[in-house]
Amino acid sequence: MIESLEGLLRVNLASAKQKSQEFLVFRVDAEDRVRRIPVIGTVAGDDLKLLVTLGMALQRQSFLSLASSQVVAREQLGHDRNADRETAFGEGLGNDLAGPSPKPNHRSYAWRDYGNRVGVWNLHELAQEFKLPITVLLNTEIYDYCPEVVAAFRERGDEVVGHGRTNAERQIDMSLEEETRCIAETTAAIKKHEGKAPLGWLAPYISQTYVSLDLLKEAGYRYMMDWPCDDQPFWMKTRSGPILSVPYPAEINDSLQMLNRMATPTEFTDFVINNFEEMLEQSKRHPLVMGISLHGHVLGQPYRLREFRRAIRHIVAKRNEIWLTHPGEICRHVESLPKGIVPGS
Fold first, then answer.
1. What is the 3-state secondary structure (H, E, C) of the chain?
2. Is it true that domain 13-335 has CATH number 3.20.20.370?
3. pLDDT digits (tens, 9 = 90+) for 165-198
4. What confidence tens digit (pLDDT) does each residue in 284-341 have?
5. How do the domains of the chain map onto residue ranges?
6. Single pTM value for the model
């Protein structure tokens, strides 16, 4: 059983020079074109292979004085809300139940709220049953709407990641002052309720401006997941020093696949299993991070959850070959490595 990433990216510099076949070449940017990433080492006799993160996002939107939330379960957990600006019922961002409808679109509103009322608890039970670490991607207005849900994952010791105040807004639409305030208010709310500031960030709607990375670094964030362009962590430059990019599952995402691409529960489950098996095979050559993004109003539906259990059983059956963990733990390990090992360092 692999308990940590100790030694995961550790490189024996002496042998590394003699065994160039143990490295992959990564392109980073114009100033830092090539890096070499070592193959996986061993810990307590176990081959270190694939890192798997499970995430869930809780989301919220507004109906005048009422508030509705939806839960996105990744093998990281996130809470999203669309309510802070008192947007009218049916407005804001998000998927509709059956396509655009005249306002007020109560069907889609109720469908999304199912995620907070039922779906998230279905996913919580799944995590409990299989002892899965969950990362909560949190819209902080969820603290006011359904604090019981956040408390349930807090009791499990799961990680909370900053996900803005609400999914009714996007950073790309904000002025510099508004974006700075959004990040500050999100951070302060999490620190107030969790007793510590979050290490990581995923932007509402995964939307960034030209200065988002700078603002996050200056607000104390050590990693973010807004750039799904790699299967390994890498450092990105900011005006105040580097910030780590941790892989985010843009493709292995129930919302994208089931609501946008119309994948069936069986197809999505097969996507997860095939992705896992291929990455597990690739990880014999180099360490990789695989995430799974889930939503309470999507995968929390019983008929989808029933089929998805097949993917979870498949993954946990190989628990001794992988590291089921939180992105914050990946960040801490990468930070402990000597410069020059991880791209961008």
1. CCCCCCCCCCCCHHHHHHCHHHEEEEECCCCCCEEEEECCCEECCEECCEEEEEEEEEEEEEECCEEEEEEEEEEEEEEEECCCCCCCCCCCCCCCCCCCCCCCCHHHHHHHHHHHHHHHHHHHHHHHHHCCCCEEEECCCHHHHCHHHHHHHHHCCCEEEECCCCCCCCHHHCCHHHHHHHHHHHHHHHHHHHCCCCCEECCHHHCCCCCHHHHHHHCCCCEECCCCCCCCCEEECCECECEEECCCCCCCEHHHHHHHCCCCHHHHHHHHHHHHHHHHHHCCCCCEEEEEEECCCCCCCHHHHHHHHHHHHHHHCCHHHEEEECHHHHHHHHHCCCCCCCCCC
2. yes
3. 988 889 999 999 999 999 999 999 999 999 999 9
4. 888 889 999 988 889 999 999 999 999 999 999 998 888 899 999 999 989 988 888 8
5. 13-335
6. 0.77
